[in-house]
Amino acid sequence: MSDYCLSAIDHPWHGPYHDREYGFPLNDDDALFERLVLEINQAGLSWLTVLKKRAAFRAAFDGFQVDRVAAYGEAERQRLLEDAGIIRNRLKIDATIHNARVILALRESHGGFKAWLDAHHPLPLADWVKLFKRHFRFTGPEIVNELLMSTGYLPGAHHPDCPAYAKALAAEPPWALTR
User: Fold this and answer.
1) Which residue among 22, 34, 39, 175 is the active-site one?
2) Given its phi and psi angles, is residue 23 left (phi above 0), alpha (psi -120 to 50 degrees) or beta?
3) pLDDT tens per residue, range 31-75
4) Residues 80 and 103 in one domain
5) Is 14 annotated as a binding residue?
6) Where, in this chain's numbering, is Zn(2+) bound (predicted)?
7) Is residue 176 in some structural domain?
């Protein structure tokens, strides 16, 4: 079993995320945006830190509503930089606002973030990374890999012996539909 599958067992924060979200497909652009923002904010920190701050992130970023975050200006940016409940990293905050605007543009060109992901699936990780870097900010190989694995576009979230593997597979993640 993978290290995460083992370490998540009965953990108050990792357990619920691992068992009900990690590796499961997301069909809503706001939910995909949330996962992107959380993965970006995890860079250099532990996933536990991000999970513990998740509610504060939701509140700070208006429930991860893409339209609202894309409209943020300097006042909202400053508010976020002063919010002790979230990770106050200027580059990550700026990337979040920029990336919301990218998702708005993807609505015009592809019908949304999910539709854009679906239009490019399947790709090898290296190609995904290049594609993300062309459009989004703060999306290096590790962030892109975790985003795509955690949302079902790439395999590997769960070991086949993990009980969550069967549940995630039953939800028909994109990686499983292209085998």
Assistant:
1) 39
2) left
3) 999 999 999 999 999 999 999 999 999 999 999 999 999 999 999
4) yes
5) no
6) 18
7) no
